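Translate structure to sequence.
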């Protein structure tokens, strides 16, 4: 029953709440004179102000709460000014891990790979995305997936000229007008399955309704683990396999220093200045070689729904992981960042298998061999020879000079063919045929003999002369 005395009572005990509102902080008031023991949950972005007595007072009697105040006097000598710790001279794994984490996020955005940030509420997932977007001057469009409808991602159906078309939503039109940018899908783990299904086409194909989004449109999602999310859902396997997954954690030192001295902007690496072309060819060849030796790791769809909603190996996720690692290597980022990227695509077990296999390869230096005119000691196993061919293709794509092309074809690939791997040598030659032709490469008689069919394809000889 409304009672003006009770309202006044509540107001007197909510001075702190009014002050908090004046500071611009959203609040939730939990409880009151007639509420005994009610506890409400909410998002961590809201300040919860608890305002309830220990017992329900009798009707007509409303005791005034006792005011308890305390003052503490300190002097300048007792309270010295704090100093920001010197991070340059401090080695701490947690800070290094955090740097690797936001570097991995930056690589994903620069490589235009959809990425999802997993973490509890209030750890700064949104703020770091905003910083990276502002650093690059990208348009940032935030879409709350948990309160969205499937039509917000597949478009609203309407009739036009006797057929059904789908009108794109406002957020997609804004991104198109901005010629791309970052689409931030917040609270995606609370989106129902129907909304997740509608997200499949925009995330992978960048098409919303009848509107193709610009090529420079990047997707970032943020999610709380289903066990702590409000009405959380596991991600469907098709949607999860389209994302690179990062577990977002912030060290206590970063939060402590930020609260005490002000939060510093993150050091965004200059990924876009690096050309990943040659590295991408090399990493793709390595991944292809690895999967030929470990076909059991090419596709492993988890059986449990909770495991389907995270990273797991598939042909698509292997390709995405190779693309991410190539961008990281082109930008000269560390191995921990590369491991985070590959694990975020194919899962930690498969990524560890690949990285350990790559470390054991012990391949010859292809660049040194090209400088020495093609002198190289070939390894003795097919997988390692295939990796050498992939590295050779990447090296020629990076620098297709005539001298290097002739050393690659007339010496290295001829040796690969003579060693019993004509199929690998022929594939490599086809990959660099365009560069060799542009460089006016001259084939040796031995190369003519070994690669007659490819030479005909390149237009160097007629079919009768090649025979």
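Result:
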């Amino acid at each position: 029953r409304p009672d003006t005395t009770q309202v006044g009572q509540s107001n007197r005990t909510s001075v702190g709440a009014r002050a908090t509102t004046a500071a611009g902080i959203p609040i939730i008031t939990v409880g009151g004179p007639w509420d005994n023991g009610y506890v409400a949950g909410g998002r961590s972005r809201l300040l919860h102000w608890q305002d309830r007595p220990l017992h329900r007072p009798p009707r007509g009697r409303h005791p005034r709460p006792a005011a308890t105040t305390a003052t503490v006097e300190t002097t300048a000598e007792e309270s010295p000014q704090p100093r920001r710790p010197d991070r340059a001279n401090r080695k701490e794994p947690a800070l290094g891990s955090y740097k690797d984490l936001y570097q991995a996020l930056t690589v994903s955005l620069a490589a235009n790979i959809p990425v999802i940030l997993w973490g509890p509420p209030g750890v700064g997932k949104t703020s770091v995305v905003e910083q990276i977007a502002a650093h690059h001057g990208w348009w940032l469009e935030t879409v709350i997936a948990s309160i969205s409808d499937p039509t917000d991602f597949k478009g609203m159906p309407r009739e036009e000229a006797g057929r059904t078309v789908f009108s794109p939503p406002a957020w997609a039109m804004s991104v198109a007008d901005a010629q791309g940018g970052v689409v931030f899908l917040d609270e995606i783990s609370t989106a129902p399955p129907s909304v997740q299904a509608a997200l499949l086409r925009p995330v992978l194909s960048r098409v919303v309704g009848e509107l193709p989004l610009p090529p420079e449109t990047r997707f970032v999602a943020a999610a709380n683990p289903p066990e702590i999310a409000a009405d959380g859902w596991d991600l469907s396997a098709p949607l999860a396999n389209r994302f690179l997954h990062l577990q977002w954690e912030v060290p206590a030192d970063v939060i402590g220093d930020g609260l005490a001295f002000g939060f510093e902007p993150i050091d965004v690496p200059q990924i876009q200045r690096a050309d990943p072309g040659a590295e991408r060819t090399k990493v793709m060849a390595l991944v292809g070689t690895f999967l030929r030796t470990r076909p059991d790791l090419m596709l492993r769809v988890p059986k449990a729904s909770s495991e389907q909603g995270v990273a797991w190996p598939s042909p698509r996720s292997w390709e995405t992981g190779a693309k991410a690692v190539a961008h990281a290597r082109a930008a000269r980022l560390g191995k921990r960042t590369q491991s985070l990227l590959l694990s975020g695509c194919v899962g930690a077990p498969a990524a560890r298998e690949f990285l350990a296999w790559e470390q054991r390869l012990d391949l010859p230096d292809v660049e040194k061999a090209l400088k020495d005119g093609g002198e190289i000691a070939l390894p003795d196993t097919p997988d390692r020879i295939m990796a050498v061919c992939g590295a050779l293709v990447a090296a020629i794509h990076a620098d297709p000079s005539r001298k290097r092309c002739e050393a690659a074809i007339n010496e290295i690939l001829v040796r690969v063919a003579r060693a019993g791997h004509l199929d690998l040598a022929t594939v490599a030659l086809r990959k660099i045929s365009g560069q060799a032709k542009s460089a006016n490469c001259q084939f040796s008689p031995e190369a003519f003999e070994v690669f007659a069919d490819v030479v005909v394809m390149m237009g160097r000889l007629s079919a009768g002369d090649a025979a």
